[in-house]
Amino acid sequence: xxxxxxxxxxLITCDxxxxxxxxxxxxxxxxxxxxxxxxxxxxxxxxTHDIVYFTNRKIQPVFPDCTIHSNQRCEAHCQQCNVQVCLxxxxxxxxxxxxxxxxxxxxxxxxxxxKENQEIESNILPKYKxxxxxxxxxxxxxxxxxxxxxxxxxxxxxxxxxxVDNIFSKLSSSIKSMxxxxxxxxxxxxxxxxxxxxxxxxxxxxxxxxxxxxxVCEVNNYKSRLAENREIPFNIDGKIPxxxxxxxxxxxxxIELGEYQAILTQTVLSSLTDExxxxxxxxxxxxxxxxxxxxxxxxxxxRVACVGSDEAWIxxxxxxxxxxxxxxxxxxxxxxxxxxxxxxxAVTRQGExxxxxxxxxxxxxxxxxxxxxxxxxxxxCTPKRLCCSRSGDILVSxxxxxxxxxxxYQRDILKQEIYRDEHGNxxxxxxxxxxxxxxxxxxxxxxxxxxxxxxxxxxxxxxxxFRYDGTPARRENPFSPRKLVTDSMDQxxxxxxxNDCLHILDQNGQFLRCVDNCGLDKPSGLSVDSEGRLWVxxxxxGDIKVIQYMK
Length: 551
Prior knowledge:
The protein is α+β, with helices and mostly antiparallel strands. The chain has two domains: about 105-265; about 280-550, TolB, C-terminal domain (Neuraminidase, 6 Propeller). It has seven helices and 33 strands. It has helices spanning about 5-10, 35-45, 85-90, 100-210, 215-220, 225-230, 275-280, and strands at about 25, 30, 50-55, 75-80, 85, 100, 245-250, 250-255, 260-265, 285-295, 305, 310-315, 320-325, 335, 345, 355, 360-365, 370-375, 380-390, 395-400, 405-410, 415-420, 435-440, 445-450, 455-460, 465-470, 480-485, 490-495, 500-505, 510-515, 525-530, 535-540, 545-550. It is elongated, with a radius of gyration of 43 Å. Mean pLDDT is about 85; it is low at about 1-10 and about 265-280.
């Protein structure tokens, strides 16, 4: 015997009220209880009704009412007008048109839906479920691998701390030993001088007494000790040693104090070894090649900032910053509040867009479609160019009273100014042109000084490492450096505007080769994507060429 629960599940209710259905209108395809039969007929007086017991119902299509002719149902479709029509419509306004039976369309659509359902059930849903299972497995595996990475990183952190503690313990011990030895020598010398001074004072008094006498013998028998007194005991020729350190960011720490030397080198995480090995084996192609050309339609295109492997932000001489990709799919844009145009753009390590508003002397960041002020540059300093460092700092080149400087910011806090060398001389030539800049993997700051027509590289402390004037490339026109970038091999790539080429240098300023075979007519914008390809923008055409230059 069926349970009350199963009865409830099998119970079919009236379409007009919650009561159990007893009857059915074949014309309207409506289930009805006894009480609602008259209500149904009364509400639709203009239509005919075929009321039968529910068990005798005939399931058939319910054709829509004609909106033009009352009491008529649209049982056909006019293909010419793409509307549903009744018999009167066919005889009047749609006379002579191609008419299709609505039942035929209805059956075709039903068959189409059945086929779709069958494909979803038998093919698509199983694939989705399989994908879900795969993703669940990957989530589990990935979680375990990331846990392992965290443990690995923690072990390396402890190892670094231990090595640093050992190095600086030895360093401290050496300093104490040097201090004791040096101070003992100084105090010994001090004591020797102290003992000699009374003898000189005694000799001085004796000489004064001789000067007072008139006795010839005493004066003639005088023996001078001046030469002896002039010979001050040999001074201690000792210098307090300097502590010399060289830090290669994230890779190596070198310390030298007198004869003591120590080098702390980073141990690469095992999980990253394959990636590092892959990068270290990359070589320059004999001839660079253009992978694709992206027409952007941006007039006076000047700035390109890659995002990942196949996307970039670009801007020209207008307020908008546009987003493009290699597939030329739908583009988005950010409208800035700049008076004319953003002076430069970049992308942070987190993938967020930042840009310079020179009119307001700010560096702004775009987050969730909204623009916020990230940095207010000092009064009197106009920001011109920027780059994001690997440590998360932001480097900004500014001009103040015709003098170019580089400012380093940690978040919104100014941490460093670079414009004078260790001798107090200005590093960058005065002039109207701005500094383009990029950071290398070792922390070096690479700069295009257009006023001096050279590329300059300084270390993270601001000490000049080298200058490059373009001579080794043997170009026809004087070197005209513009935008520059660095790549995974620590190479420096400089756009040479009037020579229509790119100069490639190693991290020590050694010229490697020029990229001059890709139709680089006055390259302006320059960026490098995560695949190691160059995105070169051209102001005249508004095109971007994606160039492969490494194997």
